Amino acid sequence: MITVTDGEIIITEDERFEPQAIFECGQVFRYERLTSGEYNVFAGRETALVKNIRGAYRIITDNTAYFYNYFDLATDYSKIIDNIIDRPMIRQSVAFGSGIRILRQEYFECLISFIISANNNIARIRGILSRLAAALGENRGKYRAFPTPEAMAEANAKFYERIGAGYRARYLVETARLVASGFDLHSIQSLDTKAAKHKLMGLLGVGSKVADCVLLFSYGKKDVFPVDTWIKKIYCKLTNDVCGTEAMRKYLLQLYGEYAGYAQQYLFYAHRGGAI
DNA sequence: GCCCAGGCACATG
DNA sequence: CATGTGCATGGG
Questions:
Q1: Strand ordering across the sheet containing A2-5
Q2: What pLDDT is attached to residue A269?
Q3: Nucleotide C7 C1' to residue A81 CA (A)
Q4: Phi, then psi, of A3 in degrees rounded to 5
Q5: What global pTM score does this model have?
Q6: DSSP state, A273?
Q7: Is the shortest CB-to-strand distance from A88 to strand C under 7 Å?
Q8: b/e per residue, A163-187, with b = 16+ CB within 10 A?
Q9: Is A209 noted as a catalytic residue in this protein?
Q10: CA of A191 to C1' of B12 (A)
Q11: pLDDT in tens, A18-34
């Protein structure tokens, strides 16, 4: 059961909701795990604390409506799991990551995050995004908002190199300037997946994989299957086959169909963490 | 020191 | 269209 009150959302343990799986499955980078096991999450200009009290999770925030949508709480994940559990390769991964939910992140924040993610590791991505928000984000008291396109467009390539973005610095400058000057990220929501992907790939630093991640983690498109180095390893191990990235993506996409995005997250989380 | 990371842009065949 | 190559940075 999910209950929304003034200042918190309460989620009983029979729901598919496990903060560790949600935050550490690689879909999001602006969070911190406290020594208590609680999580602070920063999304756009909002923040929430996720904690467990006597078996129930509580999302404590002054913007419950925002985080109800952010955590995709209107979706019944048991139905999704029932639908894909018997398909090839995935049973153990779903069992391991059954508390995953696909977040609904803000378009620009997600786009910038995954441009930075290219040929990078998660620890570094988190650091770069943290320094980015600290330098350019609006001061919200105890934390910083994610920077606006306008704020990012005013910084130069040198700045992005200083915070550790490396050769991706110019991608960030170009993309931020384009979005700040009218490239409409919101209008992509109403496009079908193919058209949406094509439009995103018009941005510098956005290829097939980054576009799939943005479509999945912010636009809520589930008929995508981001293929990264981990997925390639998983695919080769499970199928004992060798093929190109694009062939792999198309095969996995048809295998899981409209649930491909969920399937990808279960596989990624279980295998990357070494659980399988 | 070496290998690798949620790949991409760009050049060439 | 397909394949190959260079790439900033720092964690392990």
A1: A2-5, A8-11, A56-60, A46-53, A39-43, A31-33
A2: 96
A3: 40
A4: -120, 130
A5: 0.98
A6: T
A7: no
A8: bbbeebbebbbbbbbebbeebebee
A9: yes
A10: 34
A11: 999 999 999 999 999 99
